[in-house]
Predict the 3D structure of the following.
Amino acid sequence: MTSKKHRIALIGLGMAVTPHAQSLLDLRERVEVAYAFSRSAARRAQFAERFDFPLCDDLTKLLDDPSVDMVLIMTPPNTHLEIVQRCAAAGKHILLEKPLERDTARAEQLVALAEQAGVTLGVVFQHRFRPAAEHLRQLIESSALGRLAVINVAIPWWRPQSYYDEPGRGTRERDGGGVLITQGIHVLDLLLSLAGPISEVAAIAGTSALHRMESEDCVGAGLRFRNGALGALQATTALHPGFSERIELSGELGSAVLAGGYLQVFYQDGREETVGAAASTGGGADPMAFSHEPHRAVLTDFLDALAQQRAPRVTGRAALRVQRLIDALLQSAAERRTVAVAQ
């Protein structure tokens, strides 16, 4: 595809930046990094040791540069609304690391701001772009598994206490919560994209004895999907040493098990197929231990969306759905009752 070369500004140079920077190197024929911004001199220095992109300590400078037409925001969740507001007002297209914001009310404001400004807003949910997940989506869309009846999801991850000792980590003020909005949100977004909306949940949630943190590190729930399927959720960051997330779907014609990047399909007529391979997905003590290829696919889709004047595959509206699911799970646990999921 032939399209103009975009100029992008990176906003935030923390833990999330590495796979994006690697992807931008791969895509340098299509996009040029004009600025790599962080207020922290230490983070700019650490970033410069690994990547040769122009550094910046002044957000206004990059926003005022008319040659920059898109930004990639990788700052803490509670900063997203203000930064998106400024970027949208400057006419920059926005690719935003998950979650949209620390709570759904602020997330809704953020999405509305981008829509009102007429800029494209995409959200980084790279799990959708793994080859095994793409193949499973195609199977579901073609009804190869038949009507889905049972859908389970497990997120058996691990984070050491040192991870939560970092200032703000796992707090409601900065991150918006714990395992659901910070880790499980990727898998929950993938689940919704594959199986469709969840209509109601019955959950328990809390902090295990293995962590000292403000928010939840363990959640279990029963799920009822709008299509009539039933299922269960288990999500934690307290299962050492961390294992691949797993989505199980059972339908009239067969079952599928997606474990990280590896898909197994078992048809009731005896056929079997596999796609992908087992690989680290960041479920253990090193949350960045994964390939950057799905991030590159997210960026490629976003660039294609700009070239084709279409929405990216993961829009702000799509990202709101997963935050509303998380709200319902935590509300159900707090109130000890079944809760309907807002759509």
